[in-house]
Amino acid sequence: MIFPNMVDLASITELANPPQNIIGSAIFLAYIVLALYGTINISGSIYSQYSSIAKLSKSKSKEKGKLKEKEKKRKGKEEEVQIAQSSAIQNARKRHVKIYAFLASISFATLSYHMLSFLIISYSAWAGKRKLSLNDITVDSLKAWMLNTSLFDSFAKELVHDGPSAAWTQGAILATYFWNIWMADKVQQRGYSLKTMFPYVMLSQILPISLTVSLFIVQLHLSAILESAKVPTSDGPQPTSAKKAYKKTNPTLPTIILNAALLALPPLRNHPVFIPLVLLTRIILLVPFSGRISSREQQVVQSISISAGFVFAQLFMMRSTTSLGEVVRGCWSGGEAVKALGWDAQLGALVHLVLSWGGGV
């Protein structure tokens, strides 16, 4: 029986593939717009909070200058020590803010470069020209290019088109998953609201994780400084209302599902199930923010060990066709999509080193 209001799957399929790839183009453009929105939104909020702290520091300096010697003497030695310690902690946090902001800027710059390179290469291949000039790029040609190419599909397939690419992609996505668990744990500790976290969650889904986590750590430091100074600000994180406490579950199951999906992506890259499988990995990356995943160290370490096993399985399966050296060089010799994730994985490792070194929150 045919229903008159039934969705015509054939029409949808036609609109999701060249030469009328309206759906795919819309998704890809939406990714770019949302990524820019999230980055600008977070950066604006961070800048506003940092400005508030700068103004607060100036006002405190003026107050200190006006203190009389008698008032200084009246202060107990213990109180002065506490003030000195608090000031030292705040100064350290300000230094860390600058470090993580610098890392975030590097992440954004490398990501922008590789994404732009991916788009230029795609356009050049479609136009059949190795070198492009501004005269070759028009509104009509851009429209035709987007409709006649599968940008979203091509980007995803480039990430797993060979062994080294698949290995770097696997590592980058697993890093994103565990960074999300870490961020979700910090969110619960600080009691951040959904409104505060939405841009970060959105950005972690759209862009590689090093940018998001660097900005998030900056936010953690800024909110700690403002909280210690007891300065209310509408741009800072707002505490969430009391929520129903859910029983936390072990992250092992979603970890296994994510790893299995990542392991299946390379051999299924030309199968119709490929894109749904890609979307499944994105959904699993959201699971830590559900508030139901445990962040206990023992369980997280167990999940990391499981993931390491899957990574070794991936390397073992490609041993006959790909050497370890080729895997390592894949970050530099792969496509622009792979380079974007590869550099993100390295920057994410650098952020982790900074946290371990003493830039923790």
UniProtKB/TrEMBL annotation:
<feature type="transmembrane region" description="Helical">
    <location>
        <begin position="167"/>
        <end position="185"/>
    </location>
</feature>
<keyword id="KW-0175">Coiled coil</keyword>
<feature type="transmembrane region" description="Helical">
    <location>
        <begin position="99"/>
        <end position="126"/>
    </location>
</feature>
<feature type="transmembrane region" description="Helical">
    <location>
        <begin position="197"/>
        <end position="218"/>
    </location>
</feature>
<protein>
    <submittedName>
        <fullName>Uncharacterized protein</fullName>
    </submittedName>
</protein>
<feature type="coiled-coil region">
    <location>
        <begin position="53"/>
        <end position="87"/>
    </location>
</feature>
<keyword id="KW-0472">Membrane</keyword>
<keyword id="KW-0812">Transmembrane</keyword>
<feature type="transmembrane region" description="Helical">
    <location>
        <begin position="20"/>
        <end position="40"/>
    </location>
</feature>
<keyword id="KW-1133">Transmembrane helix</keyword>
